[in-house]
């Protein structure tokens, strides 16, 4: 997954190899996957509130990492960094501190 502000280069928000090995990438079936990731400190966000573009990129993780050059059309999201006041909620009542 990559996220960036308009006019800035796309930046990865997680380590695809580690997240796959640690079970953070969950196969849902029918070539669908789920990853919950906190973008607050990601290079392309760096705790800045604002409008962002995001996309998912197809990568190979084994035998070594390789960007396969296939990416979804960018989507838009709004990120609110907030203060130190405890974060927000993901809609299910769970605290989210920047997770998408």
Give the SSE map:
Elements: E1 2-4, E2 11-12, H1 16-21, E3 26-29, E4 32-34, E5 50-55, E6 57-60, E7 66-71, E8 75-79
Antiparallel strand pairs: 1-2, 1-5, 3-4, 5-8, 6-7
Word description of this protein:
With 100 residues, the protein is mainly beta. The protein has one domain (2-79). 6% of the residues lie in helices and 33% in strands. It has one helix and eight strands; from the N terminus they run E-E-H-E-E-E-E-E-E. The strands form three sheets. The protein has a four-stranded antiparallel sheet with strand order 2-1-5-8, with no helix packed on it. A two-stranded antiparallel ribbon has the order 3-4. A hairpin with a 5-residue loop joins strand 6 and strand 7. The relative contact order is 0.22. The model has no long low-confidence stretch (mean pLDDT 87).
Task: State mean pLDDT (0 to 100 scale).
Answer: 87
How many distinct folded domains? 1
The shape is globular
Roughly what percent helix? under 10%
Instruction: Please identify the structural class as seen in this structure.
Output: mainly beta
- What is the overall number of helices? 1
Question: Roughly how many Å apart are the termini?
Answer: 11 Å
Strand order of the largest sheet: 2-1-5-8
Largest sheet: 4 strands, antiparallel
How many strand elements?
8
Q: In what range is the share of β-strand residues?
A: 25-35%
Q: Element order, helices and strands? A: EEHEEEEEE
Poorly predicted spans = none
Radius of gyration: 14 Å
